[in-house]
Specification:
Structural class: alpha+beta
Largest sheet: 4 strands, mixed
Radius of gyration: 20 Å
Number of domains: 2
Strand order of the largest sheet: 3-2-1-4
Distance between the termini: 36 Å
Protein name: PhbF
Organism: Sandaracinus amylolyticus
């Protein structure tokens, strides 16, 4: 993935009719084209063409939600509970929970990579998680570049499993939860030893 330098983000103007105008290319673009711009590593800033209100966050969220990928990631009961929360509580929950979860995952992954020369099987849960995430999120990168697993030279990366039928999602989510609980236990044990 190509990452943009520290230059200014591409300015996209959003009009009342939901049309998007790429000011760099001087042309109208679709939401899919905007998604492709972001996927290739360009930063964007979306503003309301009339008021100059910043719409970046809402537009990027729209891309995720309209792609259909997000619907497969979140169970209905969680979505209902999130809708029932007020904006402040929801923002606090999402910010803290997602940040803490990602940090715990990355810490466990770094620990597994550290011991992988001695225990090659230690990184298998992360290979499985990346394969499942790629399957759920489509052909794009499953995790941020800094979170991607790079296997040690002595191991062969596992091939992603074939896509299961849609009705196995609940089973896979349960398996991921069990793996996460095992990783938490492993992390707690490692922290006590240090």
């Amino acid at each position: 993935m190509r990452l943009r330098s520290s230059s200014e983000p591409i300015l996209i103007k959003k009009y009342g009719n939901r049309r998007l105008y790429d000011t760099r290319a001087s042309s109208y673009i679709t939401l899919d084209q905007l998604e492709a711009i972001v996927r290739r590593g360009d930063d964007v800033r979306v503003i309301d063409a009339k008021t100059s209100e910043d719409l970046t966050q809402a537009t990027l969220t729209q891309i995720i939600l309209e792609s259909g990928r997000a619907a497969r990631l979140l169970p209905v009961t969680l979505l209902q509970q999130l809708i029932r929360m007020d904006d402040e509580s929801l923002a606090e929950f999402m910010g803290r929970y997602l940040s803490a979860t990602l940090e715990m995952y990355l810490e466990a992954k770094r620990g597994a990579q550290t011991v992988s020369p001695f225990l090659p099987m230690a990184t298998m849960p992360f290979q499985a998680a990346n394969a499942i995430a790629r399957m759920w999120l489509g052909a794009g990168q499953a995790l941020a570049p800094e979170a991607q697993y790079t296997p040690p030279a002595t191991t062969t990366p596992a091939a992603p499993p074939p896509a299961p039928p849609p009705d196995t999602t609940a089973v896979e989510v349960a398996a991921l939860r069990r793996e996460l609980d095992e990783l938490k236990t492993l992390l707690r044990g490692n922290k006590r030893k240090t």
